[in-house]
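[Automated response] Your request has been received and processed.

Submitted sequence:
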Amino acid sequence: MADLERVKARMPYLMFSVSALFFPSPLFEEGKYGAEEGGIERIPAELRTNQNPFDMFTLFMSANVCTATLAFGTLGPALFDLGWWDSFLALLFFNIVGAVPPSLVATFGPKLGLRAMVVNRYSFGWWPSKLVAFLNGVNMIGWAMVNTIAGAVILYDVGQGKLPLAVAVLLLGLVAIVVSVTGYKWVHKFERYSWMIMTVCFCIIAGFGAKHFVNVPMGKGPAETSSILSFGTAIWAFQVSWGGIAADYAVYMREDRKPWVIFLWTWNGLFWGGFLIECLGAALMTSVSGSGAFQAAFDKAGVGGILGEIFVGYGTGVRNFGYFIETILSLSVIAVVTANIYSLGLNVQMLSESLIKVPRFFWSIIGGAIFLVAAIAGRNDLQEAMENFLNVIAYWLTPWLVILAMEHFVWRRGFQYDLDAWNNESKLPKGIAALVVFIIGTVIGVLCMSQTWWVGPIALGVGNPPFGTDISWELEVGVTIALYVPLRWLERRYFGL
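Generated structure:
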């Protein structure tokens, strides 16, 4: 009841402080429009709904069945010099594994009624958890930026260069912000149907593009191994980045929902949405090696140019139909950006008690403005942004997710969490073990890093100079498991939490 009263007590303040300022007509009146007024507070049983676990499938399908995922798939041939079959196999294996951690995090939502960053407090404690929340907030802004640019380049091709890329970024970003500020219920409603429409459009793209696909042969030797592992790191990062927010979209489900059901629906949405669209992206990119026209289109407008080129040569009617399909596909990124900005507002509230008093959707608006500025500034560098951003986030996310998993399976089996402690510093762990292991794990990741701007000594030592071989997340998993269990045992022994 304490959590319920806490949520109710905030309502008058929320309506006065923000709704009255920004929306004179009570746009966010919960009873009228179903907009969510709460923030990171635990959702008590009294506020739970009969939400179907299938919503986790539709959410992550919509978030992945978009042009950003398509653009990511092109990195196999375009950035890592892989052929078709090695790109396919890398996407298959690393997506299977990468979808597991976020699916585990999603199970915390119904059982605990807590957002992912709040669950983080049960291992990292009060103060270290703020560092993780800050990093995850940066993660959300970066993802929103990358995804919006991926949609904007498609609109740019539709406008045949007459629609400035900055304007395309602004249009898509504003729509996503509007959906995200309305909250949990409307985010799920939007995601429930977006993937269906986009899947049809991607099938049309595959049909028109199939004759242009080229079976680029696989490489061999150390260079091939390095490329596979480096692409694998990017695929892993693409999936596990959802771990920081996965529980956010299941907190209103009833507590009696089976964890394995939540896990499976989430995993299927993450895997199939990511794998299939990424494979299409890799296949589309092979067309560049087989045609000068596709190369020119890619050089001019990136992924948007490739999509436009597959409709060329059939006549004006088909080309106009292609523009229509591209326009619909450009809107697909709204589904993923909406989720990013919604959870960003929750991340901000984790940083300070005083920030909880300000409504979540206010912070979503502020975060939305920040990511729009960043996206407009970086609008011409999508491939470079995806390469650098995707790999970097994997270096801190991996040890964090392993720590969360170890805490859950070793010490809190059966969801044995003190639910009254979520906002009480004295009842939470000190977070010493988690912070120390997190830092060590992240440093290990940096030493194993293989980026254009930095190659770690371990990566270089593994082989394939001068680029080395990226084995960051694989080594991080092992080191984090080996260190966290004994250090957390010592922390619990001396501090009792």
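Summary generated for your ticket: The mean pLDDT is 87. The chain has 24 helices and no strands.
If you did not submit this request, please reply to this message.
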